[in-house]
Specification:
By secondary structure, the chain is α+β, with helices and mostly antiparallel strands. It has a single domain, classed as Sandwich (Jelly Rolls), CATH 2.60.120.620. The chain is built from nine helices and 16 strands. It is globular, with a radius of gyration of 19 Å. The chain has a six-stranded antiparallel beta sheet. A four-stranded antiparallel beta sheet has the order 7-13-10-11, with helices on one face. The two termini are 35 Å apart.
């Protein structure tokens, strides 16, 4: 399939963004992002494309790596911790670790002819996101982090956390029988204020500002994860939750740290990078 065959163009005219229908789509997405930092696009890919993407993802499941089993909302942002005197506060959000139970398939293990790769590498996607953000969007250039598939079996979850990028683009390929709900607090922090007290309330389960997104297979989600804390609740049932993370950036030639890739994708990354 070509990229144009994967997207439900009747609902989402990515090939006609200059038309009134294209302008309406972009405006509605911008409005949703402005309102609460997220936007979901149901049935973004066609039924046939979704079925093939799911099957291809399952065929790669044995290549997935579990990575860390716990992490703070800030993952491993040691620079932020160094800036603050938190030694006396063991319950500070920077020191609070939550359970993380998922496996990830790195980009270098996803064949270029798999439909997820075809969609991710399509200019339709970068042009669409550029229009939504009103700035040029590029594909992440990291050989491991650019395109990922996340697998969560029963008991799987992801802890409350922030992302490093301004916009996170995901595509749900398969939902669990129950659980696996995406929860978030939109714009809880800013560049000028980490708002640790509100973060603490979220971690303590007493915040009344947490929202939920009930994602469905085939749904594309755009989410401002850098300043919005979020998590995936525990999976229940025997059906694996499968989600693709499509890495885009507003700067060219973006790559992640090798240390992070080793942590999330396993010793093979260290071996590969050390032999270069």
């Amino acid at each position: 399939m070509k990229p144009i065959d994967l997207i439900n163009l009747d609902l989402y005219p990515l090939d006609r963004l200059e038309t009134p229908a294209g302008h309406k789509l972009v405006t509605s997405i911008r409005d949703s992002l402005e309102l609460d930092g997220s936007c979901t696009l149901p049935d973004f890919v066609t039924a046939n494309a979704l079925q093939a993407m799911r099957s291809q993802a399952i065929s790669l499941a044995d290549k997935a790596y579990s990575g860390p089993t716990s992490a703070s909302p800030y993952f491993f942002n040691y620079d932020l911790e160094k800036e603050l005197d938190i030694d006396v506060d063991r319950k500070h959000p920077l020191r609070r670790k939550g359970k993380r139970n998922l496996r990830q398939i790195a980009a270098d293990l996803i064949p270029g002819d798999h439909l997820l790769s075809v969609l991710y590498c399509s200019d339709l996607m970068t042009q669409f996101l550029s229009r939504v953000l009103d700035k040029e969007v590029f594909r992440n250039q990291d050989k491991y982090q650019s395109l990922n598939i996340s697998l969560q079996n029963e008991g799987g979850c992801q802890q409350w956390h922030f992302d490093t990028g301004d916009m996170v683009t995901t595509l749900l390929l398969q939902s669990s029988e129950s659980g696996g709900i995406f929860e978030y607090y939109p714009r809880i922090r800013s560049e000028d204020d980490e708002n640790f007290e509100e973060v603490r309330k979220v971690l303590d389960g007493i915040s009344n500002r947490v929202k939920q997104l009930h994602l469905r297979p085939g749904m594309l989600s755009l989410f401002q994860g850098r300043n919005s804390i979020h998590r995936v609740t525990e999976i229940r049932g025997s059906t694996c939750r499968i989600q693709a993370i499509l890495g885009y950036a507003t700067s060219p030639n973006v790559v992640g740290s090798t240390k992070s890739s080793i942590l999330h994708y396993g010793p093979r990354v260290a071996l590969r990078e050390n032999t270069r």
